[in-house]
Amino acid sequence: xxxxxIDDLEVELTQTLGRWAISSMAMGAVVKLVGEVAESPFLxxxxxxxxSWGAIDGAIAGFGTWRRQQSIDQQxxxxxxxxxxxxxxxxxxINAALDVGYVAAGIATMIAAGPLxxxxxxxATHWLGLGAGVAVQGGFLWALDATFARRISQTPATRxxxxxxxxxxxxxxxxxxx
Length: 178
Description:
Elements: H1 6-38, H2 41-70, H3 78-111, H4 113-120, H5 124-153, H6 162-177
């Protein structure tokens, strides 16, 4: 089996984020409905986060797919492929650090649920659900970003479309034979 290219990993990352977005929104919709029926501030707060983060993640995945389509026929040199790989890895490392912050913010919200409730008049269980929702989303995104940053760092950055090399080499040798 061939090792994945940077392009392969970029596609896999975008598709995984897109699937997570769809799952988050579907789960959020179901949990919101259950929360409404059960009159549960926790479930409503949790569901709101799943729906919001799902929409944002979906937009990011959609933009990534669109951007990828714009450069599908782009031929990169090994140096350009390395630059692309380095940029993506750095972006994922930065995102992973931000994701840790999201988890911490979710936990902090849960810890501060009582004071937030007194300050806003919303039940503490609302803040617990909201914080749990943020922590779940941040945790998944941390795992995704950290995993792909590691995988990209372990993937040799060579030309992203190897079939271009084969056709280019063939036409180059034809020029010498003619």
